UniProtKB/TrEMBL annotation:
Organism (species): Candidatus Rhodobacter oscarellae
Record region (Disordered): 94-114
Protein name stated in the entry: PilZ domain-containing protein
Amino acid sequence: MKFRKPRWPVDFKLVLFSADGEQLVTVRNVGRHGLCLTDCQDLRKGQDVKLLFAGTGRQGRVEWVRKSLAGVHVDRALGEVELAMLRQLPRRAGAAGAAEGLGSGTPAGRSRET
């Protein structure tokens, strides 16, 4: 079984810049080394992107694309302070995972007991 690094469910918008222009996308989850995005248009695996969010930015590369979802690996890992700030951003009502109590600081797919 492949180990998956911790990711935390979030729900906020960011601006993604690519060679094709800019677009507003939604972040579904975030980890130290990447983000899962939705509402993406015309992204390609291997494409270089720049992400602007919460007063900061990161360069990255699209690792995978499935319909309107994309996984982006960031060139410079997010620090603990940045991750904590992103996890505290308000979630939209009805956001995926909100009903299960996610977004409370527990990584996606893990319980507090582990």
